[in-house]
Write a structure and sequence with these properties.
Layout lengths: L2 H14 L6 H28 L6 E8 L4 H12 L5 E7 L2 E9 H23 L9 H29 L6 H19 L16 H9 L21
Helix pairs in contact: 1-2, 2-5, 2-6, 3-4, 3-5, 5-7
């Protein structure tokens, strides 16, 4: 991402997070930041058609640590899928190693967004009271599930809009080809993958987590993103 666009995203997010902002103003600033991130993904994809070396397919491994490691994995998947990346979960101690596949620019976007969203989720959970009749861990897991589901939907919408507004008639084919190439790269590395069974969550936090997801900033903080903030999501 260019420094000019990154600066613009940072300013939008700073405005969105200003306590003096009304909810409507905050939502407008957040929507603009999301639009810029999505447009960047399309621009890089089209540039790579002319110069494939500018955006190669790659992979990276992210350590997802306890507590709530499986729930953080769910949030990462909710971010990665709309951004045309794929991830494989591997157990590592009390957490997971997430093997992430995608084009370099999309891996960059996933890192940026996931790092920011982990911090926002930690803040949201800290500000949300657990009902007296609910188990704290069950409530927080369901809260995170609601947060991740809404985030994923917002990112799908932003990516679809950016593709349709790009003006390039072949953009849908370009993006589909990129998704296929990422999937082939994953299949080469993991030819016998199994799909994890769906989780059943019993807490009552899904609705408040979903509401937090609707107001989350989707622009990230910096391009040197890593998953260190995963440790900030406390008990």
């Amino acid at each position: 991402m260019s420094e000019a666009m990154l600066s613009k995203v940072r300013k939008l997010l700073a405005q969105a997070e200003d306590p003096a902002c009304t909810p409507a103003e905050s939502a407008a600033f957040t929507a603009k930041a999301t639009e810029l991130i999505a447009r960047y993904g399309v621009d890089r994809a089209l540039l790579a058609v002319r110069d494939p070396t500018s955006d190669p397919v790659g992979d990276r491994v992210l350590d997802i640590v306890a507590p709530y490691a499986r729930d953080k994995v769910g949030l990462l998947a909710a971010v990665a899928e709309p951004l045309r990346c794929r991830c494989v979960r591997r157990q590592r101690g009390s957490g997971f190693a997430l093997h992430l596949f995608g084009f370099a620019s999309d891996l960059e976007r996933v890192d940026l967004l996931f790092t920011s969203l982990l911090v926002q989720a930690a803040h949201g959970l800290a500000a949300t009271a657990v009902p007296a009749d609910d188990h704290p861990a069950a409530f927080r897991r369901s809260w995170l599930a609601g947060f991740a589901q809404v985030i994923g939907g917002r990112l799908w919408a932003a990516e679809t809009a950016a593709a349709s507004e790009s003006g390039a008639p072949s953009v849908a084919l370009v993006l589909a080809d990129r998704s296929d190439r990422v999937q082939r790269r994953l299949a080469e590395e993991y030819p016998r993958l199994r799909t994890a069974p769906p989780r059943r969550l019993g807490g009552t936090g899904f609705g408040s987590g979903a509401e937090a997801g609707r107001h989350a900033d989707l622009g990230g903080r910096d391009l040197g993103g890593n998953v260190a903030p995963a440790r900030q999501l406390g008990h």
